[in-house]
Amino acid sequence: MRQWAVEARLLYWSVKLALLLLVACLALLIGGGTASGIQPARIFLAWLIIRGLLPLLAGILAAQGASPELVRELHSTMPIPFRCVLLMRLAIIAGVYGISVIILYIFARLLAIWPLAIPGISRPLSDLVNIIGCLMVLGWCMVVGWSATVLLRSSAAGRVLLSLVWFCMLVASAIAMSPKAWWLLQIGLLLSGGLGLWWAWRSLYEPVNDWPAQGEWE
Amino acid sequence: MSYQLAVWRGAIRAEFRMQIQRRAMWFTFALLTIVALPFRGGLPEILTVAPHTSIVAVLCQWSVLVNFLGMIGVAFFMADRLPRDHIVRVDELFASVADGLAARLVGKYLGGLAAVMVPLTLWYGCGVASLSLHMQDLTVIVLGIVTYCAIVIPGALFVGAFSLACPAVLWVPLYQFLFVGYWLWGNAFPPYPHFPIITLSGTMLTPVGSAISVGLFHVPAFGLYHLSLAEGIASLCLLPGIAIGTVLLLTIFIRWQMTQQ
What we know:
By secondary structure, chain A is mainly α. Chain A has helices at 2-10, 12-30, 39-65, 72-76, 82-110, 123-152, 155-175, 179-203. The longest helix of chain A has 30 residues, at 123-152. The chains are: A mainly alpha, B mainly alpha. The interface between A and B is medium-sized, with 34 and 34 residues.
């Protein structure tokens, strides 16, 4: 429990940023006005924030949490394995940003600016599936940033790759409007995220002498 | 003056070596090259359309694509250069022994940027060489150098300068998040009337090179179709000009920061 508190304190800025962003996004969505000319922009913004910007920020912060540390050797002498510490950080960021996504989704639905309804599924269930879809995108971005940083031993490289696949995912999300494409995308995210996590987790069992790579203090 | 020059040369050499030895950077650009293949304007597409369209149009498409994807790498690998000095505690050492702050910062900027441009240039060069071989035409290489100097270099100078300067006041992950947001909003979105959100895209301040591509070469990019030659030239001059101004401002800011300590 103590380790959780320490990690939460270390991630103070990540948590604070989530709160600030949440307030800013809510202000933007609520205060944007309801004129018919503004409505398409609000719908697009809500989609971009919930399915794009929040997952990207969470992914970048997850990559930061897994970045090479000067005290890596000290970590390896502690009773809690370093890989567990890294997972703890991932879980804290996932918790904070997951709650933010759910709050924003609820507000977007209340303001009637959420563009996606899943055809063939009744309203409450459709919302649940939509929330799970948004959380899946969030989790996937975090896993990609985290895994790429662990595998490449560089958070800058992890974040570049995250930004790139995030952009591809955003385009795919915008295109995948039919139910079949939507489900295929979710399965693709789940499989690729699971594979990345497993691969990165396995690499953390390797000896520490080449970790972090030279010149990667960030 | 010779002391400043020595500091400048030393900083360029050190930064270049430090950056070029980052295996992660090479690996990332290798992945970028692979990911870029299916994009519009990617290598398979330009090789297919090259015989049926003008070479300049194909090269502009290629330059804009390399800029669009590659500059994310340039920005992220440049962003950690200044905070690194603080983390490994050499900034205090520099402050205590050297008087060449401006020379050191300019050296850091040019050295770091030159190193990160090596894989990007190789990637760009591979595309131009493939096109030249495919078309059996050596003028493609000459035109490739022209589009590289006109589209890629100004964008890199602009992005590199901001990526070096902004982390002096912003937390690096926050800067990188804002950069990706800006890159999408200010470069990839179509210009405003065609899109519901007001954007910088299509103006002279688009480092992705769409304004230069349309203004100078009359090749549409990212939803921008019409721009005058004067606006294209203005964009070409503005981007490096702003980069120089940014590095200058960074020097003033760090000098002020040092006097406050």
